[in-house]
Amino acid sequence: MKSTRKTIVRVGALTLALALVFALPIASAAILIPKTIDVRTGVTIVADGIEYIPTNVNGERVDTFLYNGTTYVPIRAMSELFGKGVTWDGTTGTVYIGDNPNTHQWLLDVCKPYRTDVFREYQTVTMAGKKFAHGFILGEYALGGGGYNPGYADFNLDCRYNTLEFDIGCQDGSAENAELYIYLDDQLAYTVDLNCDMLPEHHVVPLNGAITMRITGTQYTLYYPLANVEVH
Question: Which domain holds residue 84?
């Protein structure tokens, strides 16, 4: 391993690199500050018994190095090694590993329902032991012998969207089956069969430039949250 003087770019006051286990400092502003440091290059990376050679987006080998007792490797190379994509937002000086929230157009952010019945947004819900967000729950149990009300949500899409995507599954601890219905311009366009043994499923629904959309279901829909609901 040899000693080398290298110049690296820092974002804000935090280095855009990560140790072998992801420890990613994220900058709060896109201020790039040059800094010259002395490092030791030539670190070898072995993943599951196989040597891994990090490269840049052009397939060219890039350096790994030690600095002040910390191993630094290219963030893109290591993220992709573990199956995570990387995107860079130069406006905010932010690296996104995996999901980039700015690439999503969440339904409830861009098109809130104009009419609802027993409709609840949530921060997070748990399905199959995993937390989900960006969605809502329809339905409730009416006390006093009123039974279950499936609820509904009406949206004015105004011909602006072509596709609806969402995840749906059984909320942990529930044990009733149901069905979900999606109406476009007052016509039934999509049905999802729901059962208490299901794992969360991802659904893609063509909207075909519809003007209106209603999402509703049968009496036990309150046990089946819709999550990651987006339109594009």
Answer: 2-99
CATH, residue 135: 2.60.120.1060
Q: Which of 23, 68, 19 is nearest to 45 (CA)?
A: 19
Q: Report pLDDT digits (tens) over 67-122.
A: 888 888 887 777 777 777 677 766 677 777 766 666 789 999 999 999 999 999 99
Q: Which residues pair with 21 in a beta bridge?
A: none
Domain end (from 70, 99, 128): 99
pTM of the model: 0.61
CA distance 56 to 132: 33
CB 155 within 8 A of CB 107: yes
Asked if residue 131 and residue 49 are part of one domain, the reply reads no
CA distances from 71 to 4, 42, 66, 88, 131 (A): 14, 11, 5, 22, 32
C-alpha to C-alpha distance for 11 and 27, rounded to whole angstroms: 6
The shares of helix, strand and coil residues in the chain, as percent rounded to the nearest 5, are 5, 50, 45
